[in-house]
Design brief:
The chain is an alpha+beta fold. The protein is 50% helix and 27% strand. The radius of gyration is 26 Å and the shape is elongated.
Length: 128
């Protein structure tokens, strides 16, 4: 017949397995949360940064890409060049904000400002 000490020893491996499962689950959830923040698409990353600028408000960004294929030794690589940007911002009614957004995005992406279009975001009342 098993004593209390034997019963406790028999339950130890189950307890250890349970603790390991909980710890691994927490680690996986934390790593997935950190990974999702790092894998934001460039448009979302830029929109987040631009929305933090003074008087800009909420921002949506769209990149237009020109794809080029390059043949290299034993490999074909595809390179995507940004050829245009559309920025929709709440504060874009102000000409100063439009100019600031164009200059900032042009400098960051190294594209000429004539390839950047900034438009005002539609107000919710106007959408009805």
């Amino acid at each position: 017949m098993l004593t209390n000490v034997d019963k406790t020893r028999a339950k130890r491996p189950l307890f250890i397995v349970f603790v390991l499962i909980v710890v691994l689950s927490i680690f996986m959830v934390m790593s997935l949360n950190g990974q999702s923040e790092q894998t934001d698409i460039p448009e979302q990353q830029l929109a987040k940064i631009l929305s933090e600028m003074e008087d800009v408000g909420q921002v949506f960004v769209y990149f237009h890409y020109e794809q080029q294929k390059e043949k290299q030794f034993l490999a074909v690589t595809q390179q995507q060049n940004i050829t245009g940007v559309i920025i929709v911002a709440q504060g874009a009614q102000d000409v100063h904000v439009q100019r600031l957004l164009k200059q900032t995005v042009g400098n960051v992406l190294q594209i000429p400002t004539h390839r950047i279009q900034v438009v005002a975001m539609q107000h919710k009342e106007e959408a009805k």
